[in-house]
């Protein structure tokens, strides 16, 4: 519902393109001016806390903001942590650390007062307490933080924020209820991207880099010939269908690489970023060189994929995400930096001897698969759900689960 507030007739001149007449428009503004007319949400929140502590009323702006935004909260809150990470990301992009491979989403603003937009697109944005960040508050707060202390982000003290254009959209002349609904829809209506899938797209991540290098360089048996591994990895989707030629998704292959790098710790790190520094150092503080880690992981994982290609082609249990995670963590025991190396004389092949890879409940039920009362087997569990169970079964042949997956009932 539109508001009855007085339209904005004076303020910062901008050129806008109307998208929804009388409701929403978009445009471009330089960062300097944006930060001058949109309050720092962190400062607004801090001021409200000081006022409450002193027994004074909080500002109308702070009350309205709390109606359409979640508060930042303490330094340990998820939103507060995101602001710091976002600021680091923006600053790295400004410094040129990422080349062309970085981006920022459009900033979404809200003006409770309606804007007057001329036929040629000129309008004015309110200057004092008239604008709210409706769906980009983390980014706006991060920009304020960088602007307040550029040196802390390795930027020159006189960095020209006026030379940074930012794309924005602005909803105007709509009430708090409509603004709150837009916040809800933007944050809950979209289908979230699977975190592991998103990580697999990160070209700066060490785990993803090694994964892609393995895909590009390895050839595996396929009948009487060999094919590139890349042709057997599904890109951009979350699941591989039973009849697809692909073995696994890119995110599952990255899980195999992550766990081979980090061991059991990689089972939970598969959906997070991996840096070379995440490779654990030994008791003397030694950490293997990045090139050594890459070579050993690619050699060990590559050899396993080549030797067991038939099991992957036929979509046995070996392709299930939980099994992949347990396998990768087991492969880590063959790495020179592993904290739990295989005993002398025990090879990876010997450890895995006798495992029954068929997708049958009698082998994998309760380990990597779930079986309901009617005997139906489900492999829906991911690496986090059952990766550790698989690892224990693979590495302890005489345990109950170890005997089960080897068909020794």
Structure write-up:
The protein is α+β, with helices and mostly antiparallel strands and 409 residues long. The chain is 41% helix and 12% strand. The chain has helices at residues 31-37, 41-53, 60-68, 78-95, 137-148, 176-188, 195-200, 206-217, 250-262, 265-269, 290-307, 309-313, 321-331, 348-351, 361-364, 383-395, 400-405; strands spanning 12-20, 24-30, 107-111, 122-125, 132-133, 165-172, 219-222, 225-228, 233-234, 248-249, 370-371, 377-378. It is elongated, with a radius of gyration of 27 Å.
What's the number of extended β-strand segments? Answer: 12
Which regions have little confidence, pLDDT < 50, spanning 5+ residues? none
Percent of sequence in beta strands: 5-15%
Helical content class:
40-55%
How far the N terminus sits from the C terminus, by CA atoms, comes to 68 Å
- What characterizes the major β-sheet? 6 strands, mixed
Q: How would you state the average pLDDT, rounded?
A: 91
Computed structural class? alpha+beta
């Amino acid at each position: 519902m539109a508001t009855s507030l007085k339209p904005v007739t004076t303020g910062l001149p901008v050129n806008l393109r109307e998208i929804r007449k009388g409701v929403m428009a978009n445009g471009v503004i330089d960062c300097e001016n944006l930060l001058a007319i949109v309050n720092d949400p962190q400062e607004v929140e801090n001021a409200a806390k000081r006022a409450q502590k002193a027994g004074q009323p909080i500002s109308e702006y702070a009350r309205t903001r709390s109606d359409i935004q979640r508060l930042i909260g303490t330094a340990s809150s998820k939103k507060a942590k995101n602001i710091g990470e976002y600021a680091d990301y923006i600053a790295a992009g400004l410094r040129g650390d990422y080349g062309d491979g970085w981006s920022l989403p459009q900033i979404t603003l809200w003006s409770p007062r309606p804007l007057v937009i001329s036929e040629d697109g000129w309008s004015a944005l309110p200057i004092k307490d008239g604008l709210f960040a409706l769906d980009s508050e983390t980014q706006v707060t991060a920009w304020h933080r960088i602007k307040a202390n550029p040196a802390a982000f390795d930027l020159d003290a006189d960095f020209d924020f006026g030379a940074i254009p930012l794309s924005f959209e602005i909803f105007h002349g709509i009430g708090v209820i409509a603004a709150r609904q837009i916040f809800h829809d933007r944050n809950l209506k979209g289908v979230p991207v699977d975190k592991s899938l998103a990580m697999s797209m990160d070209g700066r991540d060490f785990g993803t880099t090694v994964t892609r290098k393995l895909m590009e360089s390895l050839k595996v048996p396929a009948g009487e010939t060999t094919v590139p591994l890349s042709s057997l990895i599904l890109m951009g989707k979350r699941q591989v269908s039973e009849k697809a030629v692909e073995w696994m998704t890119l995110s599952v292959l990255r899980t195999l690489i992550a766990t081979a790098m980090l061991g059991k710790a990689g089972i939970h790190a598969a959906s997070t970023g991996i840096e070379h520094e995440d490779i654990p150092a030994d008791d003397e503080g030694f950490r293997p060189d990045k090139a050594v880690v890459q070579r050993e992981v690619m050699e060990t994982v590559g050899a396993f994929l080549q030797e067991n290609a038939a099991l992957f082609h036929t979509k046995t249990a070996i392709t299930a995400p939980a099994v992949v995670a347990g396998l990768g963590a087991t492969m880590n025991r063959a790495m020179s930096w592993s904290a739990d190396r295989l005993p002398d004389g025990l090879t990876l092949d010997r450890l895995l001897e006798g495992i029954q890879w068929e997708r049958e409940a009698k082998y994998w039920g309760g380990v990597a698969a779930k079986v309901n009362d009617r005997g139906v087997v489900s492999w829906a569990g991911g690496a986090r759900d059952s990766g550790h169970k698989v690892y224990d079964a693979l590495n302890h042949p005489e345990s109950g689960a170890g005997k089960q997956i080897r068909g020794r009932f």
